[in-house]
Each structure stands twice: as structure tokens, then as C-alpha cells.
Amino acid sequence: MTPRPVLPLACLAFIAARLAVLAVNACTFPRLRPAPPGAPPTPATLLIPMRNEAANVPRFLPGVLDQLDEHTTLLILDDHSTDGTAGLCRALIASHGQHDRAQVLAGADLPPGWGGKAWACAQLADLALQRDALLVFTDADVLWAPGALRAVLAERRRQRVGLLTVLPRPLPLPLGAEVLTPLVDEVVLSWLPFPLLRTRPSLLTTANGQLLLLTPHAYRAAGGHAGVRAAMLEDTTLARHAKAAGLPVGQALGGHLIGVQMYASYWASVRGFAKNAVAVHLGSRALMLALGAAYTLTHTLSFLLPGPLWRLVAACSLLERPLVALLTGRGGRAALRGLALSPLTAPLAWPAYALALRGRVPWKGRLHPEQT
């Protein structure tokens, strides 16, 4: 009796499951679309924590300033930058004539037991809550197209949620950064079907701090950033707290309205992934290594192993990255690059895993409390 080829069949099942989730999300995951004409104005405060973002401010801050109107204000917290971030922000605010709607604040010293971003967001929220308006946290590397904020506010009303998180469309990347950075989208779109995000268990929740909107009630009910002060994934943990408090949580794809430029090089992406790798795998190094090995087998080693089943595994493994690129709105060229880079992704991710195993990955000159 010929033994069954268990391993390649298991690999096919692994890929098929991810492609099935991706298909569900292609049909169900909401996309931002322009707000309908006559949409009611909604007071909102845009909140941006910044630490040494001088390279990003000239490119991305003007798009944020263009969102401001009589119902919208902007608060920027400069977290002890040493590269002139605050001065650049103030100059752009002045050149856009937004003195009365935008403000740059100096952050307080980081208390023990707090992550840097959580502390910066907590300070911003304390000020924003003095105004009865939605809290819209975003990052310095997020690109806001004209009308994007109105679209985000309309999407929150459409989904009727207390917390809405948006997955931005990745902007064109240098080749080195292109290898790992799209994995962020794969984790969201290939692992958790959107319909499960709307169910009650709080563990079935993800969020993206690059754009996170909360009502004041939702923010307080979730415990604010004080409740996630030492969490590596403070965005996802905050969303899980909100869901645990009985509040509906929503997600949307940014499409052509919201983009992001996360990393400028391969090694920057390695450090970024290493910082969050263990937390993304539910705090388990064993799970991280097991899934890393499975991904390596299905997406890389399958090209080297003999037999028709392994050739089928290899062919199927090429589908995921191009489909994710198309779903996030990156277009055909990004899909073709994803096709070419797919077999290289797993081996080039192992330096990030190795760095994560060390447990101490500085980010912007600081170690997170979970790593100390």
C-alpha cells in the first residue's frame, strides 16, 4: 500500500484555509468610500503622537491639515524628538493657516511601566476628552487623501460602532521593505474572517493604531490607554477591551482614501516585525516558530521538494500575496511584485524571528516594558 503523502496534503490544507479566509474577506470586509453628500457634520479631534518624525512630516502632515474644518481640530504630541519634528509641524501649520485648529504639544516624561506610544496617546486623549468629539488616533506616516476623514466618520455611522479601525493601503515601497511589510495585511486578511470580528469573543479582534477612531464613551469604557499602558499591541488590546465592555468594534480597508508608508528599508522592517512578532502570536514564541516553519515549508521549500503535490503546494502558495495586494487596493504592479517576492519572504523573515527571540528590540531609542 502506498503511504499517503500527509505532509504536502497538510500544507495544501494550510494554504487553502488562508485562501478561504481571504475569499471571505474579499466579499465582506468593508472599504472606505467617500461620504455621501449632505452627511451630517461630526465633531472630531485628530490625534498624532510623534517621535523623531522629521522625515515623514513634510510628506504626510499636509494631508491631515487638509481634513480640518470648523468641526475638526488637530493635536500633535511631540514625544521628546531630537530631529526638529515639532518645529516642522508648527511651520506647516502656519503655512496652511491652521493656527486656530491645530496645536503642537510637548510630551511629558515617560513614566515607569508605560510604552512610549501608549503614554503619548494617553496624554493626547486627556486633552481631547475635554471636547465632546470623536477621538481619531493616527500615525505620522499615514497619508490622508482629500475627504478621507469625512469618509471615516461616515463609515463609523454606517457600521454603528464605538470603535472603528482602518487598515491603510500600503504605499509604494523600496524593494527591500517590500519583502516583509505586506505581511501586516496578510495577517489581518488571511487569518481572521471579518464576520468573526463582529462576534462577541474579545480575542477575535484586531486593530490598527495607524488609524483608530473611538467615541469618548467607548474610550472610557475600554479603560483608555491607561488600561493598555504596558501592552505591546496597545491598539489591538484597546479594541479587545472595548469589545469586552460590550461595545461593537468595526474595521475597514483604507483603499484610495488612507495610505501608509511604514518602513524605508528591509532592516527597518525586520526591526519593526521583531518588535511585535511575539505579541502577534499571542505571546507565544513556540507558536511564532511553528507558524514561521509552516510558512517556510509551504511558501519556500515547496519549490525545492520533488513530486506533483509539492508543485501544487508551490503554485497555490503564490496566490496569497498578489490577492492581498489587489484586495488592499495596491494594484496590479504590486500584485506582480508580490508574486515574485513570495518565495523569498519566509527565509527573509527569519532574522526578525531571531531578533524577537532575544526579547529586547529597541524602537525609537526605547525598550518596551514587556521587554524589560
Structural notes for this entry:
- There is one protein chain.
- This protein has 372 residues and is α/β, with parallel strands linked by helices.
- The protein has two domains: 116 residues, no CATH class; 214 residues, Spore Coat Polysaccharide Biosynthesis Protein SpsA, Chain A (Alpha-Beta Complex).
- It contains 15 helices and ten strands.
- Strands 3-2-1-4-8-6-9 form a seven-stranded mixed beta sheet, sandwiched between helices. It has a three-stranded mixed beta sheet with strand order 5-10-7.
- Helix 12 runs antiparallel to helix 15 and helix 14 crosses helix 15.
- The longest helix has 27 residues.
- The radius of gyration is 21 Å and the shape is globular.
List the helices and strands and how they pair.
Layout lengths: L5 H23 L15 E7 L6 H9 L6 E7 L6 H11 L6 E5 L9 H13 L5 E5 L3 E3 L3 H12 L3 E5 L1 E2 L4 H6 L2 H9 L2 H4 L13 E4 L1 H6 L12 H11 L4 E5 L4 E3 L5 H15 L4 H15 L8 H10 L2 H8 L4 H27 L14
Parallel strand pairs: 1-2, 1-4, 2-3, 6-9, 7-10
Antiparallel strand pairs: 4-8, 5-10, 6-8
Helix pairs in contact: 1-13, 1-14, 2-3, 7-14, 11-15, 12-15, 14-15
